[in-house]
Amino acid sequence: MKPYRRRASTLTARRTLRRRGAQPKVVALGGGMGLSASLAALRRITGDLTAVVTVADDGGSSGRLREELGVLPPGDLRKALAALCGDDDWGQTWARVIQHRFQSKGEINGHAVGNLLIVALWEQLGDPVQALDLVGRLLGAQGRVLPMSAVPLELQALVRGHDPERPDDVDTVCGQATVALTPGEVQSVHLVPHGPPAVPEAVEAVLDADWVVLGPGSWFSSVIPHLLVPELLDALATTKARKVLSLNLAPQPGETEGFSPQRHLEVLGRHAPKLALDVVLADEAAVPDRESLSDAAKRLGAAVELAPVAGPDGSAKHDPELLAAAYDRIFRMHGRIGPWR
Q1: How many CB atoms are located within 10 Å of the residue 92 CB?
Q2: Helix, strand, or coil here: 340?
Q3: Tens digit of pLDDT for each residue in 113-131?
């Protein structure tokens, strides 16, 4: 099979938009449903969008494919691609198809169609980035999806009180799926292998961005892992892009149980003490102590933006239209006036 190349018409259109200063160039980092929520919002305000996705998932269909075939876990990459599908019939049809899970009594039970498609193209092309670009072309995705590393990673956490009978002891908990639901208090996380290489295209995207968006999402298992990839962290520290951190609407049971908004910032700062931010975005109804959040944000170099971004159903899910409006206002009003103005 010939190496995939993005269509010339697509490249020309995007370069023309950049020359005209029509829209910001945005990179969003994360994983799972949090990243999907951010992408669903961001694709409404820019066509120059890249998702950089965690690759430490070891549960469900992704975990089974990873164990059997030794591939990167495709699940979070699939979710990001689905979130970038357009609102037309083509986009929504393909979003449903790749998210579809088989129901059977056999080995295929629980596997998502998109996971199998992605892995098949990985095996065909031998290049994870090229394969994801091809899937994005098939779906008509309004942006690009990249893994943060081409190496399958294991997430490990130091957890105090993981064993209720030893509440003061600190144990090592292994695996993203386990860390996400662990009892006890997560003290820190790290990746195995330590200091994994970043995908070069992900580093280039961060360095070339106007804005970088981190979060929302599972704090220890989807957001912070990006800061544990040295080349990616260096790019985040040196890029001229502005950086906005989007907070969750509520603590996550297990992983961040009982965390205040400001505590989320404190643990992120401990994992990447040299990383400076520009804006912290939070839902105004989810911040009981605005002064403490503002103080924590200032220690990271950031200002706090409060906006109604929660969905109308009362769940801890972001509304894509409201989140898009909040991002658009931040991009236009904070720091330098971007080239898209």
Answers
A1: 13
A2: coil
A3: 999 999 999 999 999 999 9
